[in-house]
Each structure stands twice: as structure tokens, then as C-alpha cells.
Design a protein that fits this description.
The chain is α/β, with parallel strands linked by helices and 210 residues long. The chain contains 9 helices and 5 strands; from the N terminus they run ααβαβαβαααααββ. The protein folds into 2 domains: 1-32, no CATH class; 35-205, Beta-carbonic Anhydrase, Chain A. It binds zinc ion. Zinc ion binds at residues 42, 44, 67, 98, 101-103.
């Protein structure tokens, strides 16, 4: 059997077992989804949102990219954000990074890696904003881990700068935004930052005509 064929076999077993456990499982999901959470995570194969949070199909709306970035010109991320906030009305947005993130590591080197340089440059900006703190850490792994935390925090802030989130905060006092970091070594998620709906952000970024 070719390796990808195993996936199709697994899928058949999964579908069968899901129905055995809950005969209405697919019937309930086929026409509608009402997820409470939007997850913005890293594409890293070791950080699967459903498995690590014990959630089922229908529970999390998911966007993943390298290093869980919220880049304000990223039409893909913005579309996911708008749809999940305005149509699905998610109550929580979770930005989940992970220790040992290759994207953050790469952004802290001076190697050019091709087109991904342009993406990673957004992480270099996070380094620049926090230069004093990050550069004072001598241990290389600790330095990267701290950058991973600061990057998550920055992406939470970036979400709050969007008109999509600000409008939702004003109209429905939701969603709350959470910054988490997952540990590859122990499987545990560490909450590191939170912005409750309606939090006042830097006035430079606040729209007053939404
Ligand atoms: Zn990563």
C-alpha cells in the first residue's frame, strides 16, 4: 500500500467509528457549522489544533500559516477572520504558537531562504520591537522561546488593530482574543496573553467611525 492510501483507509475507519459512536454525527454537521472558536496556528505538522484541544469537527474554525502570523495585507487570513467573526460569530479567537517554531528560528538568522523571507520579515519586526529584552537573553533556546511568546502576543495585538475585530467589539462585545504557546516537548498549552473584547488599545490604531 502506498503511504497516502493509508490515509484513505484510516478515513474509512474513522467515518465508520464516528457513526458507531454517534449515529447522528454527520447528519448534524452536514448543513451547518457553529464553531465557538477561531484558531490561528502554525502550519507545523506537530501542532494539530483538534487533537491537542480534544475538539471535534464543527468546533473550531481554523487558519494556519507559518509561525501563526496575523499580517494585515494577508487576504486569506482577513477573509477567514471576517467570515468567522461576522458570520459564524465566534466567541474566542486563539492565536497559538509553539515552542521550537522553525519559522521564528529562521527569522532570527541572517540566511535568505527564498520567498519565505518576505513572510518571516514580519517576525523580524517583532524582534526589533522587543530588541532589548530578547537580545539580553544569552541562552539561544531561551531567546527563541521568548521570541515565540512575544510573536504570539504581537499577533493578538495585530488582530485588535483590524476594523473587523474593532467593529465586533463595539457591536457585540466579542470575541475575546487569546495568545497561547504549545509545548512540543510535553503537549501542554501555556496561555501567555489575553485581550478581552472591548479592551482599549493604542489610540493610534483605534478607529472612531465604525
Ligand atoms: Zn511553527
Amino acid at each position: 500500500m502506498k503511504s497516502y492510501e493509508k490515509l484513505l483507509e484510516n478515513n474509512k475507519s474513522w467515518a465508520r467509528e464516528s457513526i458507531e459512536k454517534d449515529p447522528e454525527f454527520f447528519n448534524r454537521l452536514k448543513n451547518t457549522q457553529t464553531p465557538e472558536y477561531l484558531w490561528i496556528g502554525c502550519s507545523d505538522s506537530r501542532v494539530p489544533p483538534d487533537s491537542i484541544t480534544g475538539t471535534l469537527p464543527g468546533e473550531i474554525f481554523i487558519h494556519r500559516n507559518i509561525a501563526n502570523m496575523v499580517v494585515n495585507t494577508d487576504l486569506n487570513m482577513l477573509s477567514v477572520l471576517q467570515y468567522s467573526v461576522e458570520v459564524l460569530k465566534v466567541k474566542h479567537i486563539i492565536v497559538c504558537g509553539h515552542y521550537g517554531c522553525g519559522g521564528v528560528k529562521a527569522a532570527m538568522t541572517n540566511s535568505s531562504l527564498g520567498i519565505i523571507d518576505k513572510w518571516l520579515r514580519n517576525i523580524k519586526d517583532v524582534h526589533r520591537f522587543n530588541r532589548e529584552e530578547v537580545d539580553a537573553i544569552e541562552n539561544e533556546d531561551e531567546k527563541i522561546d521568548r521570541m515565540i511568546e512575544l510573536n504570539v502576543k504581537e499577533q493578538v495585538m495585530n488582530l485588535s488593530k483590524t476594523s473587523i475585530v474593532q467593529r465586533a467589539w463595539k457591536n457585540s462585545n466579542a470575541p475575546d482574543i487569546h495568545g497561547w504557546v504549545y509545548g512540543l516537548n510535553n503537549g501542554l498549552i501555556k496561555p501567555i496573553f489575553e485581550l478581552k473584547a472591548g479592551t482599549h488599545i493604542d489610540p493610534l490604531y483605534e478607529y472612531d467611525n465604525l
